[in-house]
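At this stage, I put together a protein sequence along with its fold in token form, as given directly below:
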Amino acid sequence: MSIQEVIQACQIVADSGKKPTIGLVKAQLSNRLPLALVIRGVKQYLANPSIAKRDNETQNALSQREEARRAQSLEKECSCTTQISLLQVQVDQLSQALIKLQAEVTALNLP
């Protein structure tokens, strides 16, 4: 529960074409917040409406960075999975070659 919620509610009210008032903003909020917090948030928003846009841009930038980190992590995971699969194929081939060699040694079975 923060003032950011109040500022976002102010932006929603403003986007609907109305001037944010304490009553309209309080009705927009999904959580019950202290009246003092609502009043402070509405005052901040009315003093500088671009504050909500800046907060949204900051949140979007953080989300984009998080998405980039997740994508990198998935790429690394996929790369590791591919390498493991290739190594497994090599292990299987070497196992088959070893079985053949053991059979050849057994067949030679020199006294």
